[in-house]
């Protein structure tokens, strides 16, 4: 069975210079699409990937990453909406490049589908009441 | 069928008033006809919830021992400067005020994470606010420095006083340039990438009483989750603009100056707001009841989004340069469909004003009236109408000669 998931990888300093992600292709026949890559001043690496392949190989790939010392989070937990602060104005709708926000034509409530979110974070600062939060 | 406000108030007290929202009245009038609807319905409630920059609050902090004259000195509330050009213990904080050390647009677009609007929200939320003041000292007010926490419950007065709210219609914003711009109408993408608008349309207070026949000075309203009053026409009140046959202005027109006790308001309806690259502001909830005194007045409240038009303005050049040109006129019905056609292009639209929250305001006000908690007031004076001759003038600059 094929799977495709968006995940956040945290590379500790000692792993930043090692070829790790390339082994996902070579050894586990996985495909990936880099959504975001960043090395912080303390040299911790952060990579947001869309990773796809056969479930069994995918699981092996993830096990390999974990054993190497990479910390993995699933992306859907990373951009969150603070429901208390959201006023459902809709300013986010035309900002989002991946159509993760949807307006209900009847109630005019705005829904956020984080499975569609590619963590580009454009909405974070464009949201007037600052209801969108990024958690890495 | 003409009713009076006294008669409607009598029905409210007896729990017999028929109250509906400006959204509900559309279907009722369509079904029963305007004449019968006007006989049956006593009050139509409206609402709007959007960023309104000309908002602020004043308070009296109480006097310290020994006394300090904040007036004429410098006072910061959570690092945001308050206006002190008043008596010793009175302060005013405006929604757009920024901490002195905020980087503003030095790195464009600036984030504007915290300003006067946020101070007002936190104050209303019952949070302690840091007050730091310096003064010059006098014989009767000797103290020169004050650092303390303040809390809304301890203030002598805390009053929301917004000199321009609830714009009767507003510009629809677009960007024809080749780069993204950051405006008070939100982020506008290049080459007409999106269009933003900011009104509750068919629910908006002044669009339901386009000629100000019932809303006037002294009208009791829903303000920030509590009750307040219309104090005056708002600044830039400009009734003389092109209008539809039913009276709806096609440009920004009337405005309201509103006032109310901040102590009974709620942070749900006064939200500190950050406009990327532009500044801080306050999103304010305003709801106005419209007494159905005649068929004519009911007729106005049946206005629909399809019958309200706004002018699309280019915020990349025409707006900053004060040019009156417009890119076109679109209805709020079109805007709310999610896309509009303009210049041969289908453009996605977004709102800066929350329609679901406007509905909630109109519903809340309706419940207050039905439950006898909110009586209507007779305005003590009307807002200036088209006949007032008011015009909206630009600033005519003149050189200062020494």
List keywords for this structure.
heterodimer, A: alpha+beta, Alpha-Beta Plaits, two-stranded antiparallel ribbon, globular, B: 402 residues, 7 helices, 30% strand
Give your account of this protein's structure.
The complex is a heterodimer of chains A (136) and B (402). Chain A has 136 residues and is of the alpha+beta class. In chain A, 20% of the residues lie in helices and 33% in strands. Chain A folds into two domains: 2-77, 2-Layer Sandwich (Alpha-Beta Plaits); 78-136, Alpha-Beta Plaits. Chain A has helices spanning 21-28, 55-68, 122-126; strands spanning 2-11, 31-39, 45-54, 71-74, 79-81, 101-103, 110-112, 132-134. Chain A has a four-stranded antiparallel β-sheet. The radius of gyration of chain A is 17 Å and the shape is globular. The mean pLDDT of chain A is 89. Chain B is built from seven helices and 26 strands. In chain B, strands 3, 4, 7, 10, 16, 17, 18, 19 and 20 form a nine-stranded antiparallel β-sheet that branches. Chain B has a four-stranded antiparallel β-sheet with strand order 6-5-8-9. In chain B, helix 2 (24-32) packs across helix 3 and helix 3 (34-40) crosses helix 5 (295-301). The mean pLDDT of chain B is 97. The chains are: A alpha+beta (136), B alpha+beta (402). At the A-B interface, loops of A face strand 3, strand 19, strand 25 and helix 7 of B.
First-last Cα distance of chain A: 29 Å
Q: Domains counted in the coordinates of chain A: how many?
A: 2
Would you report the number of β strands of chain B?
Answer: 26
Distance between the termini of chain B: 66 Å
Strand order of the largest sheet of chain A: 2-3-1-4
Average pLDDT confidence of chain B is: 97
The shape of chain B is globular
**CATH 2nd-level architecture of the largest domain in chain A:** 2-Layer Sandwich
Radius of gyration of chain B: 22 Å
Helix content of chain B: 10-25%
